[in-house]
Amino acid sequence: MKLHIERKKDTEAVLQITADSEELAKVKNKVLRVLAPRVKVAGFRDGKVPTEVVEKNIDQQMLQTEFINEAINTLFIASIKEDKIRPVGQPQVNVTKFVPFTELEFTMTVPVVGEIKLPNYKKFSAKKEEVKIGADQVKEVLKSLQGRAAQKNSVERAAKLGDEAVIDFKGTSEKGEAISGADGTDYPLVLGSGTFIPGFEDEIVGLKPGDEKSFNITFPKDYGAKALQNAKVTFAITLKTVNELSEPKLDDSFASTVGPFETLQQLKDDIKKQLEHEAKHKAERDWEAAIVNELADKTKVEIPETLVEEQKQMVVQEVRQNVVQRGMTFEEMLASIGKTEEEYLESEVTPEAVRRVKAGLMLSEIADNEGIVVEPDALEARIQALKGQYRDSQMQEELDKPENRREINARMRTEKVIEFLKTQG
Q1: pLDDT for the residue 81
Q2: Which CATH superfamily is domain 273-422 in?
Q3: Fold entry, domain 151-246
Q4: Cβ–Cβ under 8 Å, residues 173 and 181
Q5: Which CATH architecture is the domain 2-111 placed in?
Q6: What's the pLDDT tens digit per position in 20-48?
Q7: Residue 147 half-sphere exposure, CB side, CA atoms within 13 Å?
Q8: How far apart are alpha carbons 94 and 82 in whole angstroms?
Q9: Torsion angles phi and psi, residue 140, rounded to 5
Q10: What is the DSSP string of 177-246?
């Protein structure tokens, strides 16, 4: 094979490939073997027809088409290995010369990743956050457990702090328009819990079951939804039920109802242990993300637009799934932050997509530099573990497909690179 590569720009390569007769002979034999089961010839059993007989009895146009496709695919794979280019999309192919089965010349224009210039990945400033669990955090969990175990007694008196008020509410803007997410029916709200916007719960104190009330609330300037920052909203509420809450006493007896604990101290120790475990896990993941993001930001590489677009679609899909889980639509989420879809894509999605692509390329390049690979036994062990999570035999078979095995291998390789980076710094 003769190969000439021309880089018209950092993210596009033009490959000029001329095949030699020996390579084409191998391709022809392979194609004939693949097509053999389709050919039926008197005197030969199905699948046992010699290749020379197959060639004489098969449609020549189909044979040539299959031959060209197989030859181009085989030579393309060989060429990118030889020159170590990184194709990221389907190439445009132009056959410039073809003499059936003996001569083949073609060009391929393919989007590629530009040269990757890594920073000194053995030095970074990201540090793991130190985990400290204080008494206040344990106390907060205990308070929550008390609240869940509290007995509720419906009362006809006026609501006071510490009561649970069951309300219907609806928020409207200064223009009288309904505000998405600012309404609810039969909503249980513990007064004084600070669950709602500052000032909201205070407006319910003193009301009796059946009372209705309208009042204005100004949202905080740092409120999560940008569209509601400093916004004046009118709420109309109906107090339907007042429940007096009787929380159990924090003692050994209460601890025994929560779990296998003989004393309150044992419960506190267990809560602290769980909080420390969760905090350490989060600190570890946050540290890993900080390392990758810091190094990715310092990595220099030209990325084909097609690769960024693919990643953008994945980011948007994740965002849509997340907002649905929060009970919103994508459109409602955009309204809450005061951005159009185009603005959101430009300011949020595109930078995240570029960062992810750079991070993936960077980690792969580091793996190549450091000779980091996934051992076959480790890959098999991971696949078997994943199979154990599914009872569906079809899902288990999916894990054995080559493309899925490659994806799992890539994920494990990334994990190994991150573990390597964590030993540096």
Answers
A1: 79
A2: Trigger factor, C-terminal domain (1.10.3120.10)
A3: Chitinase A; domain 3 (3.10.50)
A4: no
A5: 2-Layer Sandwich (3.30)
A6: 989 999 999 898 888 887 777 777 776 67
A7: 15
A8: 21
A9: -65, -40
A10: -EEEEEEEEEEEEETTS--SSTTTGGGTTT--TT-EEEEEEEPPTT-SSGGGTT-EEEEEEEEEEEEEEE
